[in-house]
Amino acid sequence: MKYVLVTGGVVSGLGKGVTASSIGLLLKSCGLRVTSIKIDPYLNSDAGTMSPFEHGEVFVLDDGGEVDLDLGNYERFLDITLTRDNNITTGKIYQSVINKERKGDYLGKTVQVVPHVTDAIQEWIEHAAMIPVDGKEGPADICVIELGGTIGDIESMPFIEALGQFSYRVGPGNFCLVHVSLVPVLNVVGEQKTKPTQHSVRGLRGLGLTPNILACRSTKPLEDSVKRKLYQFCHVPEENIVTLYDVPNIWHIPLLLRDQKAHEAILKGLNLLGIAREPDLTEWTARTKVYDMLHDPVKIAMVGKYVGLKDSYLSVLKALLHASVGCRRKLVVEWVEASHLEDITSKEDPDIYRAAWNSLKGADGILVPGGFGDRGVQGKILAAKYARERKVPFLGICLGMQIAVIEFARSVLGLHDANSMEFDPETTNPCVIFMPEGSKTHMGGTMRLGSRRTYFKVPDCKSAQLYGNATFVDERHRHRYEVNPDMISDLEAAGLSFVGRDESGRRMEIVELPSHPYFIGVQFHPEFKSRPGKPSALFSGLIAASCGQLDSLLIVSGHGSKATANGISNGKATSKAWQNGNYSKPLNGSLNGVYSNGNGVHH
Q1: Residue 216 is among the residues annotated as catalytic for this protein
Q2: Catalytic site residue from 234, 327, 398, 461
Q3: Catalytic residue at 57?
Q4: What does pTM read for this prediction?
Q5: Is-catalytic flag, 398?
Q6: Catalytic residue (choose from 66, 525, 547, 603)
Q7: Judging by beta carbons within 10 Å of its beta carbon (0-12, 13-18, 19+), is residue 323 exposed, middle or buried?
Q8: Is 398 left (phi over 0), alpha (psi -120 to 50) or beta?
Q9: 189-208 as b/e, with b when 16 or more CB fall inside 10 Å?
Q10: Active site residue: 176, 179, 527, 547, which one?
Q11: Based on CB atoms within 10 Å of each CB, which residue in 41, 120, 230, 524 is the most buried?
């Protein structure tokens, strides 16, 4: 096993996760099998109990792991399926050490950070690196490890010490360190400054780690004189200093690394130069070019409660982007704070209220993502009502599905106090109830998590067609509440159709409004399995419906192939697996980046 460690210096937010993902993709394109590990130095056991405002979205894995959003980048770039063990946290390490101490595994010794914690970190890395993640047997060839935070952070110290020991343990030719640092350009002098990177590398070397490659973030390519200066002061060969300058979208980063021959530097450091082939990024390059050229817009209103931090909906954004590329449309995201749609806002701040409704009404499609808590719920209900009544394409995810059911019960069934027990435990018409297996005392890891199977009960529904006429599909879940099965008969009699259910038939997974052009709600999170070139079926449906291509897409999805998610077609294994049953034939149109209200790019 070979290891590539990616660290960051100077400031956080430099793009270590995208850099690590891009390195992994580049090495994979050289014919190597690649896996990934993310180290997060915080004391939480996992990301499950963190606020999206605190740490961005919580990414959910097939095995139910609630992990850092960077693992989502790894899965999307490398098209792999990671496990909860691929995300290491201080909390997990300390918990395992304490459990061993309580069992007496340390034979009465004084348990210390060195060697016991550092040994536990190294053992975890070796174990996680051996887990197959690409559907093939046996371990990968290379493990890309990203160390979260910035060199010098006090909480990272045990990991840096452990990784220093680890580099000696695996030996030369098996360990390569890529240090991502900042080379700022000061407006006053207009000169690229190397001092922050010099200090960062000096700190790294002082902690026992020596970088083999410098990946320098800057607004423009590094000048030759700057590279020479970094070579002199950081003791890194000039050919091993690459620039990660600002690009239109992150799909360019693997191409930047390839063009600067970063793969050769890594392969040389890992003694793989004669084994690996030249990188083949033909498909990736073509897709990136299409991405850059798109200009015909499709405007989607994202109605959420965490819109102040776009990373809270990172996977949803990426899934929308993948689908818009498939439909050859330039994605424009209108961010709508759900609470701004509510009547109380019209009294407190009429201008914000009017702007929110204008954004919603100007959209081609509406998406209501998941969330927790009652803030903004009424605004989401109003958005679902508007989409249903005005025949605007609508996709509700997790809570988005639940509020669509609540809105239907209130407006169509006349149950004006219909609600979720999450928001009103005393409601007389609970459309959404707490799941029996859930815990009300422990929050972490107690939801219905991970990949679960959904069976289609209506074979010709839009969802089944989008999934390639499958009889079932496997998608990832993260929820504590579910639609009340006792109200299903009344809701369906009024026109709502619960087309997808779990194996018991009593847990609702997919709801559709047959009388509507595209009105779908899902209890699961289809965004977590979307990939570049393999967009999520339901996101493709939303984008296609929003730009008048749904009929064409249904023909391609329904008749182009019977292969569906995880290589399953009509309940039988197939030889050709299509991610989420998505089409491969692009529709006519155009493509773009992700825009926020049409101004500036959010990647």
Answers
A1: no
A2: 398
A3: no
A4: 0.89
A5: yes
A6: 525
A7: buried
A8: left
A9: eeebbbeebbbbbebbeebe
A10: 527
A11: 524
